């Protein structure tokens, strides 16, 4: 069955970004929107990543909406179920959920220049439907498409295999031989949990490390009942606490973007973390990073190194040659038998699959537009050739040190002001000028050259195939907020409403 609807705003994704856009548009009286979500619930990455040990490595007081602070976090780094419950609670209280369509895939969106609107195909339980909208807001997330490793023979593995972002809770791990491939932010949370669960049931864990990450201690703290009561009763204190955490994290920006030597104390803390967690000098050497601090995401854990040092764990650093029906074989010819294979190998970040599904002016997809130059947008939000398309968490908006929610709120503020401006000035469409977009990105890429992400001697998901960093923001987040505080029509080609033709 194919049906057709028109809304003013179509929002893709019901994670932190899409929900924030829905709530704030509603606040502005822009109530005619739909949020389309492929899964059956809100939450995005916090709904999907249910692996053992999943928690936020940015303190929850900051990793939450500024307009919905929460006095009830159980600890500074809250576990995934608590974050998911928080997002669900905010969604329920917002009164926007009646405009969320779940279990529905965004198939394709195309700009209809004659009608000055987006024409989008959605596929849900009741079949296909077309939605036209004035704006298309992409809040689909930058870490939402799991990447499976291209390892010879992996498709022949006969045991259970799953990605960290798609944990199979039906698999009984008791007494099993389990391998984890990867030592990124997800893996270092998974490994300690698996090690303990396997230890108590006679199982064994192999951890396959390609690159040793920097891991600093996680200063986790459980909030006492009194502390929570005070935080609940005194919102000003909550705000002050949040602000303190924000500035403490912002202190990393100069170390990452100007002078890595500023990070010397954090490097010392990382070295002490290894020394504390591991006694064996050979294992210590294996986990010692060989690139500059901050070049890849800095990880936080107190339990990762002790888990690697445990008797039932082996850290394997020889490159993986192939996977067979029941084992992983490394380049030195050693075969390690396994029952379960967990791939914690990250996400598609620089070649967003959604770029293939969005077609702008002249029939060009976003993927075509970005093929040679890499992902780029104006202010991380809008793209030439794609009128009225707004990214929340777009190119060069990512953070290695602080809360993405801060960025999300900044981009939603820009979106709101764009819509207000379109209404007040009678614009049917806005599209960023190519010269403004070029100037914006040339400046970012110039700054990028001296950041630790470029100079630090590592390969990371921040960089695309050409070595360009198209994912991170190379300045302070305050600067980002300031630069997106108001919509800037001078940087845009605008189309007046009276040129809008009736759709064919
Ligand atoms: O993924 P990653 P992730 N053979 O890409 C290895 C966010 N996050 O899911 O380093 C062998 O970081 C790869 O090795 P190498 C956070 O932004 C946040 O862990 O490339 N190994 C690496 O070790 C984070 O940065 C939280 O040499 C292979 C690992 O797999 C982002 O998500 C928690 C391989 C991938 O690490 C992604 O983290 C978790 C191969 N073929 C995640 N391919 C918070 O707490 C890849 N690897 C907020």
Describe this structure in words.
31% of the residues lie in helices and 19% in strands. With 504 residues, the protein is α/β, with parallel strands linked by helices. It folds into 2 domains: 3-145 and 348-503, 3-Layer(bba) Sandwich (FAD/NAD(P)-binding domain), CATH 3.50.50; 154-213 and 251-343, 3-Layer(bba) Sandwich (FAD/NAD(P)-binding domain), CATH 3.50.50.60. Strands 1, 2, 3, 4, 5, 6, 17 and 18 form an 8-stranded mixed sheet that branches. Strands 7-16-8-9-12 form a 5-stranded parallel sheet. A 3-stranded antiparallel sheet has the order 13-14-15, with no helix packed on it. Strand 5 (117-124) and strand 6 (127-138) form a beta hairpin. Helix 5 packs across helix 6 and helix 12 packs parallel to helix 15 (477-483). The model has no long low-confidence stretch (mean pLDDT 95). The protein binds 3-acetylpyridine adenine dinucleotide. Residues 56-58, 143, 149, 151, 164, 181-187, 208, 210-211, 297, 320, 344-347, 459, 461 line the site of 3-acetylpyridine adenine dinucleotide (N01). 3-acetylpyridine adenine dinucleotide binds at residues 56-58, 143, 149, 151, 164, 181-187, 208, 210-211, 297, 320, 344-347, 459, 461.
Instruction: Name the structural class.
Output: alpha/beta
Largest sheet: 8 strands, mixed
CATH class group of the largest domain: Alpha Beta
Q: What is the third-level CATH name, the topology of the largest domain? A: FAD/NAD(P)-binding domain
Bound molecules: 3-acetylpyridine adenine dinucleotide
Q: Give the count of helical stretches.
A: 15
- What is the CA-based Rg, rounded? 23 Å
- Beta content comes to 15-25%
CATH-scheme architecture of the largest domain = 3-Layer(bba) Sandwich
* Termini gap: 21 Å
Helix percent reads 25-40%
Mean pLDDT comes to 95
Segments where pLDDT lies below 50 for 5+ residues? Answer: none
């Amino acid at each position: 069955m194919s049906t057709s609807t028109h809304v003013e705003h179509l929002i893709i994704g019901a994670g932190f970004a899409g929900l924030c856009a829905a709530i704030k548009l509603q606040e502005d009286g822009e109530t005619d929107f739909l949020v389309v979500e492929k899964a059956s619930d809100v939450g995005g990455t916090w709904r999907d990543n249910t692996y053992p040990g999943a928690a936020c490595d940015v303190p929850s007081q900051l990793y939450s909406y500024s307009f919905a602070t929460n006095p009830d976090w159980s600890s500074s780094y809250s576990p995934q179920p608590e974050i998911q419950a928080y997002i669900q609670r905010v969604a329920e209280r917002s009164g926007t959920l009646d405009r969320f369509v779940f279990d529905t895939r965004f198939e394709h969106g195309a700009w209809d220049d004659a009608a000055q609107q987006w024409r989008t195909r959605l596929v849900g339980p009741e079949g296909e439907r077309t939605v036209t909208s004035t704006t298309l807001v992409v809040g689909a997330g930058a870490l939402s498409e799991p990447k499976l490793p291209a390892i010879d023979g992996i498709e022949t593995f006969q045991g259970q295999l799953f990605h960290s972002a798609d944990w199979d809770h039906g698999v009984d791990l008791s007494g099993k031989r389990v391998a984890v491939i990867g030592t990124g932010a997800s893996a270092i949370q998974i490994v300690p949990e698996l090690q303990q669960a396997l230890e108590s049931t006679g199982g064994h864990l192999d951890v396959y490390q390609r690159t040793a990450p920097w891991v600093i201690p996680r200063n986790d703290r459980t909030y006492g009942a009194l502390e929570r009561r005070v935080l609940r009763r005194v919102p000003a204190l909550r705000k002050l606490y949040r602000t303190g955490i924000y500035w403490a994290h912002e202190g990393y920006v100069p170390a990452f973007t100007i002078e890595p030597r500023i990070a010397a104390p954090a490097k010392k803390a990382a070295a002490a973390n290894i020394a504390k967690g591991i006694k064996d000098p050979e294992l210590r050497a294996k986990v010692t990073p060989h690139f500059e601090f901050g070049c890849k995401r800095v990880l936080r854990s107190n339990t990762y190194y002790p888990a690697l040092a445990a008797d039932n764990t082996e850290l394997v650093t020889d490159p993986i040659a192939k996977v067979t029906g029941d084992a992983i074989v490394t380049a030195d010819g050693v075969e390690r038998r396994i029952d379960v294979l967990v791939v914690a190998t990250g996400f598609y970040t620089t070649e967003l699959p959604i770029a293939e599904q969005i077609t702008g002016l002249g029939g060009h997809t976003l993927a075509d537009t970005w093929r040679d130059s890499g992902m780029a947008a104006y202010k991380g939000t809008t793209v030439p050739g794609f009128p009225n398309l707004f990214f929340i968490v777009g190119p060069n908006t990512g953070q290695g040190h602080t809360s993405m929610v801060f960025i999300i709120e900044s981009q939603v503020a820009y979106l709101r002001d764009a819509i207000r401006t379109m209404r007040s000035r009678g614009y049917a469409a806005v599209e960023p000028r190519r010269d403004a977009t070029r100037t914006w990105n040339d400046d970012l890429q110039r700054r990028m050259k001296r950041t630790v992400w470029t100079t630090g001697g590592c390969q990371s998901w921040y960089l695309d195939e050409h070595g360009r960093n198209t994912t991170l923001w190379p300045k302070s987040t305050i600067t980002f907020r300031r630069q997106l505080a108001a919509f800037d029509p001078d940087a845009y080609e605008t189309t007046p409403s009276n040129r809008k033709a009736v759709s064919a």
